[in-house]
Design goal:
elongated; disordered C terminus; 3-stranded antiparallel beta sheet
């Protein structure tokens, strides 16, 4: 049973990650796509990302889904309508924020395997693990 509230010791995801299969792009580079203009070339070479949660490289701010990409003459293009910054990206900390998100409330009965699977996330506000070695004494000793 938890002696006090338990907060996450991790930020998940730790960095911006791809939410879809596709190519990381700079959204401002494809602003005219979808307005009847010819297909817009993607940065050469585009960065391939996937739904496995691959990190978005620095400088890129959107993902064009693979279904919206055309390969022609050795280059990649999109006819996709304008992509806003952040499109198809899960921002860092969008699921769990380190130190701020409550994982288990005070008095919660630990249920294996349900709660044990999240053990790497568990820390109380003082930095101790809510069970076992390193756990601060409830009286602060």
């Amino acid at each position: 049973m938890t002696a006090g509230p338990v907060y996450s010791s991790l930020t998940i995801p730790a960095t911006d990650i791809a939410a879809r299969d596709g190519f990381a792009v700079v959204s401002g580079e494809i602003l005219r796509a979808g307005d009847g203009s010819p297909p817009v070339p993607l940065r050469n070479p585009p960065c391939r990302v996937n739904t496995g949660g691959n990190a978005i490289p620095p400088g890129y701010d959107a993902v064009v889904m693979i279904e919206d990409v055309i390969g022609r003459d050795g280059a990649w293009y999109t006819e996709n309508p304008v992509l806003p910054p952040g499109e198809h990206i899960h921002p860092a900390g969008s699921e769990i924020r380190r130190g701020g998100d409550l994982i288990l409330p005070a008095g919660h009965r630990i249920r294996p395997p349900c709660d044990i699977g999240g053990a790497p996330l568990l820390r109380d506000r003082r930095g101790g693990c809510p069970g076992g070695e390193g756990r601060p004494h409830p009286d602060g000793e």
